[in-house]
Amino acid sequence: MERGELPAGDLIDGKGMSGAAISRHLKVLREAGLVQQRVQGTRRMYSVQPEGLRAIAEWTISKRQFWESSLDRLGSILEGEPSWPT
Q1: Can you tell me the distance from the alpha carbon of 7 to that of 37, in angstroms, rounded to the nearest whole number?
Q2: Can you give the pLDDT at residue 18?
């Protein structure tokens, strides 16, 4: 996202994944609306779709209270201090 649009090859370099694996991941991200693909000659250029990431961020924030209270209860249980009335 910080580097803008990149060719698929640049996404593979130094990642320890095969080109085929990166391609499969990019397909899933495209179908989810998180990245956009543009054909430039023989290259596939990829960029982040801010709208898709925004939707994930908004959903995550909307679930924050649930997860925080759930994790607090779990912490209490693990520490041996029930957080609910007995």
Answers
A1: 9
A2: 84
Q: What is the pLDDT of residue 23?
A: 86
Class of domain 6-48: mainly alpha
User: Kind and range of the H or E element at 82?
Assistant: none
| CA gap 42, 77 in Å, rounded | 57
- Give phi and psi for 35, each to the nearest 5: -135, 160
Question: CA 46, CA 26: separation in Å to the nearest integer?
Answer: 9
pTM above 0.70, yes or no: no
Tokens of 23: 């391609």
Dist CA 86 CA 75 (whole Å): 17
CB contact at 8 A, 84 and 74: no
